[in-house]
Amino acid sequence: MTAVTTRHGGGGFPGAVAAEWTKTWTVRSTWWSLFGAAALMGLGALQFSIFATNANTNDDPADDRGMVAVGSVAVQAVDVVQFAIIGLAMLLITAEYSGGAIRTTLQQVPRRGVMLLSKTVVAAVVGGAAGLLLAALGSAVAAPLLGRWADLDAAGWIGDVLAAGCYLALISVVALGAGTVLRSAAGTLIVIFLVVVLLPALLQASDIAAVERIAHYLPGTAGAAFMRGESEEYPPLAGLVVVAAWAAAAVAAGYATLRRRDA
């Protein structure tokens, strides 16, 4: 990574992005995370497709799902797949803190805002591109398993794939921001799990309307509303805005932490 130097900034922001991009693809954790995400997507699409087919063919008409959009199967699997992508994104910063490489990074890119923004761009691009490919993979697994129950509408499929890509890009940025604040892979993963999965479930189980409403504005719930359009609280695009707000807040918190603390 000779594109970045302390004196000249290595081409400024483009050079910092290029350096982060190179680092991302030259560590094994990236490839293992993507492999894990692909495996989870394949297994998730397999499971959801079998469930849908069994529901349509059993003796209970109340279970019938009818035609199932192949892209919606992939979107369902994102609930689990996202944690492999979250792990990849947070390691862009937490791995450097755990190994001490953050000092070298800041020597090469002394402007901390530029450093964090370059990592944010890489996390969003990798997460978003992975989301598109994973959704396509899940759809390819689902289509033959659903058989005659498969809805292959092209416009709907493209919408589902793009929704998965957008959500995984934003949740990757949330993970990067949280990792910048916490500096610990384990701590970051625990906090993300609590905010994305556990806290919404607890709030929604409270049977208190005001408390349940809070759950709609957490990133996991808002992301599901965006991808599936299931929320009665707001339209799907509002869910995307909520997740984007969480991503912006996470990066802002990360930047504030970087400015306040030593590497």
As for the number of domains, it is: 1
Order of helices and strands: HHEHHHEHHHHH
The proportion of strand residues reads under 5%
Structural class label: mainly alpha
Keywords: Membrane, Transmembrane, Transmembrane helix
Protein name: ABC transporter permease
Transmembrane segments: 31-53, 73-95, 116-142, 154-178, 185-203, 237-258
Structure description:
Helix 2 packs antiparallel against helix 3 (70-99). This protein has one domain (12-260). The protein is mostly helical and 263 residues long. The protein has helices at residues 12-25, 28-57, 70-99, 101-108, 112-146, 154-182, 185-204, 209-215, 219-228, 236-260, and strands at 68-69, 150-151. It is built from 10 helices and 2 strands. The longest helix is centred in the middle third of the chain and has 35 residues, at 112-146. The protein has a two-stranded parallel ribbon.
Provide tags for this entry.
single chain; 263 residues; mainly alpha; two-stranded parallel sheet; 79% helix; globular; disordered N terminus; transmembrane; membrane; ABC transporter permease; transmembrane helix
Reconstruct the topology from this structure:
Elements: H1 12-25, H2 28-57, E1 68-69, H3 70-99, H4 101-108, H5 112-146, E2 150-151, H6 154-182, H7 185-204, H8 209-215, H9 219-228, H10 236-260
Parallel strand pairs: 1-2
